[in-house]
Structure formats: C-alpha cells, structure tokens
C-alpha cells in the first residue's frame, strides 16, 4: 500500500541530502537520460524517470519517454509524484494496474487520471548518508505484472546511480556517454545485443556464465557462427528483418533456442525490444537464468 510519511519527507537531514543531490546529479560521469533509456528497455517499459523529492515539489533529474508537459520547468507539485511513496516507505513501490489498485491514492493519482499511466515500478535513490532522496521509476501505459527479475534489473541500475555523492566535482565530468559496459556487467540477467545484420555486439558476464561462451568469442561475429539460435523455426537473420521496423516501445516475450559452448541447446524465454539510434538498430534480449531449460 502506498503511504506518505510527512516526517520522512520533511526531515531536515533528508532535505539537505536532496539539495546536494540536485547539485551533484548533473555532474555524474554518465548520461542520466541514457540511464533511464537503458532501464526502460531492460524491463520493456516505454517510460522511465529519475526524480528527487523536496518538501513541496519534486524535481526531474532525467527521463525517457515521459510526457513533455508533465513538468516543463523541471519540477512539479508533490501531488503529481509517485516517488514520494518510495521515499516515505524507503523501499520499492509498484502497481500493476493503477486504475484498480487497492489504494485510492494510486487509483486517483494524476498520472493515471490525467496522463494515462497504468503501471509503475519505483525503487529508492539514496544520498551519500543513506537517506532516500528520490526514485528511479519505470512506467507503462497498459496494466502489466512486474516480475522479480524486473525489480532486480531496476535495483541494479539504481545502485549505479547512488548513493549520490555529497560533494559536487569542481570540474563537471562529461555526461555525453553512458558506461554501458559497466551497466551490463552489474546486471544479473543475461543480456545479448544483436545488430540488424545479425552481428553480436553485446554479451555480458551473466550471458557468459549461462552459455559458456566468452564475450570475445561471440562479439563482432554473426550470431549463427556461435549461438546458432532458432526462433519459431526461423533463423535469427529473418527474425531481425521482421523486427527491424518495430517501435522501441514495443516489448516482446519470445522463446529462443541458444547453443552453449559445449553444444547443448537451451530453451530461453527472452524479453526482446528494438533500440533505434544514430548508429542503427539493435535487438536487445534479456534472459532470466531461472527460466532456462535444456533440451
């Protein structure tokens, strides 16, 4: 159940950490907009935001896919905030269907009533002293279940952002690039990224452990040379051709058959999404090891 704890929200120590976080976050050595994009794609959600909770307002630090008129000046009243529930509880808060949620405050929340949000999953962001200062929140416009794997992924991303340091660097660090390698290494789900030409360009540590291949054995090679996948009796290149023009917001869950280094075939339920960028399109697959079966 969502709750608002004014004693926590108005704590002088917490508010001081929030003010520090507002100064420090723009100087983080990563693009926070790219972090929110990565988090959204990781759980196949169309939207994500990083927000900080003040005494009367909440502040947007970064976002992906959010409504442009939600906070055009970078802040909004706490009445429009979901992160206040996370800060109050100091633990993750979620709703799978905001319109039928048990809590009236969720059912009547402006994001549900006025903007069309239907589901959200939010985890705390902490300041340097450990106080909850805000939240990393993924949202969807359709009701959906949130799995333990979804929560794990969003927690992994949140841990890369915080605890937010108390001191602002004297010289702002460049924020044009996302440390994708660091994000992927930290994730406990297997991640595979494939170009539209069927070349593997992403293969994290969890994928190495699951399939037995080293990243340098798989990356920069056509996927058919190593993982030899099958997709509903179609080769991967044909599947990529069919998915190439799928919008980034479209999420798919499909079973893949992947070959391990020792030749075994694994049936893996994968969460798939297309990521379109200036360098081309990527098919991103996230695989939860607990759902894998051998054949």
From TrEMBL:
Residues 183-239 form the PAS domain. One of its GO terms (biological process) is regulation of DNA-templated transcription. SUPFAM superfamilies: GAF domain-like (SSF55781), PYP-like sensor domain (PAS domain) (SSF55785). Pfam families: GAF, PAS. Transmembrane segments: none annotated. InterPro entries: GAF, GAF-like_dom_sf, PAS, PAS-like_dom_sf, PAS_fold. PANTHER family: GAF DOMAIN-CONTAINING PROTEIN (PTHR43102:SF2), SLR1143 PROTEIN (PTHR43102). This is PAS domain S-box-containing protein.
């Amino acid at each position: 159940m969502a709750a608002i704890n004014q004693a926590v929200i108005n704590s002088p120590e917490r508010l001081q950490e929030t003010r520090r976080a507002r100064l420090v976050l723009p100087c983080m050595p990563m693009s926070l907009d790219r972090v929110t994009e990565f988090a959204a794609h990781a759980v196949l959600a169309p939207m994500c935001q990083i927000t900080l909770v003040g005494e009367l307002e909440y502040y947007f630090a970064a976002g992906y896919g959010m409504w442009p008129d939600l906070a055009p000046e970078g802040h909004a009243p706490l009445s429009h905030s979901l992160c206040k529930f996370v800060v109050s509880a100091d633990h993750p808060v979620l709703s799978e269907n905001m319109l039928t949620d048990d809590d009236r405050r969720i059912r009547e929340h402006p994001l549900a009533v006025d903007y069309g949000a239907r589901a959200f999953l939010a985890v705390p962001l902490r300041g340097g002293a450990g106080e909850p200062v805000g939240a990393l929140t993924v949202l969807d416009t359709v009701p959906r279940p949130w799995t333990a794997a979804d929560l794990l992924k969003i927690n992994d991303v949140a841990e890369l952002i915080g605890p937010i340091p108390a001191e602002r660097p004297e010289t702002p660090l460049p924020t044009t690039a996302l440390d994708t390698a660091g994000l992927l290494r930290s994730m406990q789900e297997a991640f595979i990224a494939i170009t539209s030409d069927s070349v593997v360009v992403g293969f994290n540590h969890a994928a190495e452990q699951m399939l037995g291949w080293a990243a340098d054995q798989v990356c920069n090679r056509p996927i058919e040379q190593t993982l030899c996948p099958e997709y509903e009796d179609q080769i991967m290149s044909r599947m990529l051709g069919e998915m190439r023009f799928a919008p980034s917001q479209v999420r798919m869950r499909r079973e893949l058959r992947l070959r391990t280094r020792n030749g075994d075939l694994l049936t893996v339920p994968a969460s798939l999404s297309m990521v379109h960028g200036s360098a081309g399109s990527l098919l991103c697959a996230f695989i939860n090891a607990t759902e894998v079966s051998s054949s």
